[in-house]
Amino acid sequence: MFEVAPFIPFFVAALLALVLRGWPRALVMIAVPLLGLANLWMLGAGSFGAYSVLEFDLLLFRADKLSLLFGYLFHVAALIAIIYALHVRDTLQQVASLLYAGSALGAVFAGDLLTLFIFWELLAVTSVFLVWARRNGRAYMAGLRYFTLHILSGLLLLGGIIFYGQAHSSLAFGQIGLGDNAYSWMIFLAFGIKCAFPFFHNWLTDAYPESTPTGTVFLSAFTTKAAVYALARAYPGTELLVYIGATMACFPIFYAVIENDLRRVLAYSLINQLGFMVVGIGIGTSLAINGAVAHAFNDVIFKGLLFMSMGAVLHVTGRINGSELGGLYKTMPKTTILCIVGAASISAFPLFSGFVSKSMVMSAAIKNGYDWVWLILLFASAGVFHHAGIKIPYFAFFAHDSGIRAKEPPANMLVAMTIAASLCLAIGIYPQALYSLLPHEMAYTPYDVTHVLTQLQLLFFSALAFVWLNLRRLYPPELPSVNLDVEWLYRRLFPQAIRGFVTAAFRLDNRVRRAAIGGVGALMDSVASHHRPAGVLARSWLTGSMVAGVVLLLGVYLLLGFAL
Amino acid sequence: MSTGDKQDFFDKPENIQRILRTFYAICALLVLADFVVHRHTEHGWEGLPGFYPLYGFVGCVILVIIAKWMRKFLMRPEDYYDRLELGGDTATGANGATGTESRSQEEGMSGGQEHV
Description:
A: mainly alpha; 3 strands
């Protein structure tokens, strides 16, 4: 049978999208993820595409249950995002998004580290065009920062691969694990940057909200999930990940509460959701890994849905700040309902998709004795409902009436959101379909009385807190503002320090030059002053004084003659 | 479509009152359920009646209070970075212009879509 690696259809379609226009292009773009999905289904587990570079055996396609799950997920995500972006007439975005989706598929099916590196870099190169596609100054600068960090991640990966290659004879991509060697940490950090670990997370909150309404939907699906896959493949059971993940789940929710740009709120909540996955990978038991990848699956769909609904708001109103929106439910009821479905899913309401996956990570945490981590995750679950579940729909569609009377978005956007919303509900109601795709065999039932009851209690009382704070006017209002984060270091401190250093250097240089010129001038003046009519050298001398001078000179000679 | 009714729904205070009252009732029922339903627990605190409601409520209140306090030292004007990065008013002006331009372009596109 003729085997086609999953990324190839996307790359071919990107070439076609370059030359095609109108409905043929739309047809190609919709057909690709569908055909690709069928292709992947036929391929199943296995491997092919062995080639060798510099005596290393490389493998283009290697599939097991873990990579297959991400493969299916990326096809579904690509289909939804492509439908969502059908109305866009921008060749740059269409081509970049197809190449981007293809690169993500190449990365998850890479059988060795070098192939992974190639697609890792392609992910960065192709996705940055989706940021730049907004075509304004802010997006350009954010794209540059995004690109710089991702290239840094790629270089770290390459460096790690070189050391790894020296230590091992094979470059096969499998369990690496942290150890007393440089390569394991370099590769760990490379994955960590792409996974938005704390201190490296600002590329996400910086670039995603600056992309186009449709570009952000693509961006939110692939890069971070490819990193989650890589971590699950190479570092399962690394305890450090548990604490990193707990931090990621916790700190962004504070930022999300005070952030005004609603797509940036979602970017922070994306880091929060990644935190749950990273904790699951760190715990490393089969339940925890299953929970992590199931949550990655669900997150792509419900976070995509939320980004789509906010993208729709941005598309029809041109605004995205919570302070400028409100009351949109009156004219956009369909978008409102679809957004609420996404909000309910991310908040893990029973019967919605988040519920069936988040709980797996939580129970793995408590079963393995991570009590404090469990408490932090519980707090993060309440917090995510607070900012993503309530704040997003509330400030966009309800709250005070902003007076905007926007129409519903184009039909293709509504169709894409409806597909995502149906998937959220379908997975929530019938989780066994998703569970059967998970990498480890397990018997897990999300729906029992205890679990449903406690989750409802947690969520309803989080909502009660919101209601109470709002009625008491304690809830922080949406304010047009920028909140400082780690990015301040490289967006403010370093540029200003460099600017200050350069200014000081120039000032010093200026001063030295001026002093030197002044010195030369003074020397010239003093020399000239001796030659002026009244100067020492221009004076007329007496004969007697000249003779005295000659005598003095002869005297000195005499002394010297005796002395030597 | 009953857009007219919809426009009024959340504008009427009595509707909001009704929704809130239902909501409070559900909250009360959920707490009561804690005393009726036997929960299987894995953690000491989990077994305490009212642990989850209390944790959710207190957690969210603390979350909001800390976040509000964070604003004191984290909040900056909206053009905080732009002033430096885009080189002052001229750049932001030009930026705004391109923004609206692309927006109107997109709106034109969506218009075209709807005609189809």
